């Protein structure tokens, strides 16, 4: 029997009515001939309520107790959906993480799945059960305690089940109807993509297109799980949403797939750093130790043994970065004249698998921005992405101009 | 290290503030030198919310899914209390039923505890943990699914843990401050008892003094677990509440310990039943099959081969009893002239271990009621209890007169 994994997020199971609606979608896939593993989140708001109670009770909480409390939300949804499916005369039962079992590391609140037992659920399918409703986001540690995978972990649960059970596809039902060429709130010509490659989705996800959790995309790529993102609030359509898949499965493809942005960036420049072997390490090790997420790094050419070093990080981490660098200077491990922080920048990126084989994308991007009078402050590139920092006031303009120039509104 | 079991009901853990307050009581017992097993209910209202969701989703629900959903309430409280205790620097952790494990039968929603594993919790006490916070009301079936013990099951959980771990005492914290000689709302001279024997508590519990679940008292009696009922809303006092214990531990004891009542009784009389061997069985088997809880039974002396048979049952079951008896009559298995239901009666009982060795309690009870002009309709007796049915309008008067006559306001 072919198998499908369907994942419903918190807004898709927020009320009993919505659980009933999601159950209808499951029933339809059962009617289509599938065995189905459903992965559910907690009802919207429940996780926040539980987290609030934990934080109020114990600000520096024991993550093992946090996990025990917070994982209870998904257990409730799983039981209710199993009951709803039974009402529709579909043989179904709920599974908690420890029952499957979903074996994870002991890193509470940020555990990683190590192994999913398939025996018990497959035995139930063998007995004629059609649906296993799995509480997402949770597992069991080697010590026998309940773990959680961290926020958004239900996506990861779903992909991991799809990989473990060899599912034909993993459908992620959410409150958006797919992945867009850019944010429709900024560019109203933004177009939904029918397909996108794993690598592109990874770049877009980490750039703030918050449709899918990065970890779940990585996992899908590694195990070649076809991932579909679609809305649980639209009418049924077998071709709905966006399929995230291997690039070989994408027949027609624009060179650029999307334009992403990230609003809360800061640019930091160390002026007149003594240039010597090991200087980059001397700068970035204390930053990493202080928990600063450094993104782009640019080093100017050296002159008279000194250079300027520029990097970007989230705006909220500027103070932390300044403190770490000041301490390193005091300790004598680095030497610079001045540290300049520019907190009014945004990052704009164009992403596309096709860039690997097409030259000239970078120069086109730069000339489009120049034509709009937008100054580029920092540039970084990867095989399938070009990112620039610009003044934040130009962010929307830059996104719109690039979306236009690369014809992203056209297939 | 001596061990104590402390159980907190839903109103005692209804909010984070109350969980903090309950935790302080636990901390005090730890300071007194005890290892403590705390058994918690769900926060007041949570279980009803979860049950409501289940019933709305599936009116004839699968009890296995009901149990999975409903048991989550206690899990949340257990985690929160463990966190609160940790904040007070007391080494504590939470335990779900399946983690302990609390092994039960597969009778979902009404499971019975078969065995409690003591190894894992004792190992933690050995490592220096001072408190195990156990989610009450739940266990795990032989099939590995979550079970619940039925409403009020947390009392039973607490007593079962006290028995399994050989606890010095099991303290049941609730919203009343102990067991009274009668209901203080009816008789303002009602006095809190310092001690009461298991057998007496059983009679009082089943008669509607809703302080403790009957099953938990039975279990405590069987395993000789000292049980203390006390309020979680009063100041700390090592002698607070009422101790339910073996009668040998009660030094001074009135002959009568309490006067109980039950308001919603009905008296049913089958007039002119053909008296033959097996007639009682022919009458009461269909009633049992119809789910009627028959309490008192009185058979008149036989005359000309016919007799009258009187029994009592809850008022709410009168219609069901009438239907069952009419069907049995139609089927020819019993034969009677008329069925008379009197729905305006109440049951009054005096209870006391001392009655075993003291004659004259029954005659004193009857004369007290006679002096008040109260007619007795039915009488039943056990070794430690005398119950009568009277017109409901005399209920309060009867309770007050008996409380006075047996000097229950005096030690």
TrEMBL record, chains A, B:
Stated family: Belongs to the aspartokinase family.
Name under which the protein is recorded: Aspartokinase
GO cellular component, one term: cytosol
InterPro entries found in the cross-reference section: AceGlu_kinase-like_sf, ACT-like_dom_sf, ACT_Aspartokinase, ACT_dom, AKii-LysC-BS, Asp/Glu/Uridylate_kinase, Asp_kin_monofn, Asp_kinase
UniProt signal peptide: none
Pathway as given in its UniProt record: Amino-acid biosynthesis; L-threonine biosynthesis; L-threonine from L-aspartate: step 1/5; Amino-acid biosynthesis; L-methionine biosynthesis via de novo pathway; L-homoserine from L-aspartate: step 1/3; Amino-acid biosynthesis; L-lysine biosynthesis via DAP pathway; (S)-tetrahydrodipicolinate from L-aspartate: step 1/4
Catalytic activity: L-aspartate + ATP = 4-phospho-L-aspartate + ADP
Binding site for substrate: 47, 74
Domain of life of the native organism: Bacteria
One Gene Ontology MF term: aspartate kinase activity
SUPFAM superfamilies given in the database record: ACT-like, Carbamate kinase-like
Domain ACT: 268-350
Amino-acid biosynthesis recorded as keyword: yes
Record-listed ATP binding positions: 7-10, 174-175, 180, 185, 210-211
One family name in Pfam for this protein: ACT_9
PANTHER family: ASPARTATE KINASE, ASPARTOKINASE
Record GO biological process: homoserine biosynthetic process; lysine biosynthetic process via diaminopimelate; threonine biosynthetic process
UniProt organism field: Maritimibacter harenae
Alphabetical UniProt keywords: Amino-acid biosynthesis, ATP-binding, Kinase, Lysine biosynthesis, Nucleotide-binding, Transferase
EC id: 2.7.2.4
């Amino acid at each position: 029997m072919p198998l499908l994994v369907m994942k419903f997020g918190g807004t898709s199971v927020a009320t009993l009515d919505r659980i009933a609606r999601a159950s209808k979608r499951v029933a339809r896939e059962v009617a289509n001939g599938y065995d189905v593993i459903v992965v559910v989140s907690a009802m919207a708001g429940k996780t926040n309520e539980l987290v609030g109670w934990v934080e109020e009770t114990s600000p520096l909480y024991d993550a093992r107790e946090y996990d025990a409390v917070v994982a209870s939300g998904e257990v409730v949804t799983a039981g209710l959906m199993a009951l709803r499916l039974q009402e529709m005369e579909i043989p179904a039962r709920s599974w908690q993480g420890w029952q499957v079992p979903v074996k994870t590391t002991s890193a509470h609140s940020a555990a990683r799945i190590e192994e999913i037992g398939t025996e018990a659920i497959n035995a139930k399918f063998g007995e004629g059960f059609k649906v296993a409703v799995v509480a997402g986001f949770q597992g069991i540690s080697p010590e026998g305690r309940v773990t959680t995978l961290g926020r958004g972990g239900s996506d990861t649960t779903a992909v991991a089940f799809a990989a473990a059970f060899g599912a034909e596809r993993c459908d992620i039902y959410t409150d958006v109807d797919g992945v867009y060429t850019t944010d429709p709130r900024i560019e109203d010509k933004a177009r939904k993509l029918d397909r996108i490659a794993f690598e592109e989705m990874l770049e877009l996800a980490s750039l703030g297109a918050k449709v899918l959790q990065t970890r779940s995309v990585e996992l899908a790529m590694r195990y070649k799980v076809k991932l579909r993102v679609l809305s649980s609030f639209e009418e049924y359509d077998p071709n709905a949403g966006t399929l995230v898949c291997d690039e070989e499965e994408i027949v027609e493809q624009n060179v650029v797939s999307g334009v992403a942005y990230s609003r809360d960036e800061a640019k930091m420049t160390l002026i007149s750093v003594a240039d010597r072997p090991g200087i980059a390490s001397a700068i970035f090790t204390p930053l990493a130790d202080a928990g600063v997420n450094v993104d782009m790094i640019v080093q100017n050419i050296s002159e008279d043994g000194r250079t300027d070093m520029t990097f970007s990080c989230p705006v909220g981490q500027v103070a932390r970065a300044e403190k770490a660098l000041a301490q390193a200077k005091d300790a004598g491990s680095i030497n610079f004249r001045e540290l300049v922080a520019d907190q009014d920048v945004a990052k704009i990126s164009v992403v596309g698998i096709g860039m690997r084989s097409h030259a000239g994308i970078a120069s086109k991007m730069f000339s489009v921005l120049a034509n709009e009078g937008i100054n580029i402050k920092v540039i970084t590139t990867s095989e399938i992405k070009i990112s620039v920092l610009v003044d934040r006031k130009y962010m929307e303009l830059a996104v719109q101009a690039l979306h236009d120039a690369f014809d992203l509104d056209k297939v």
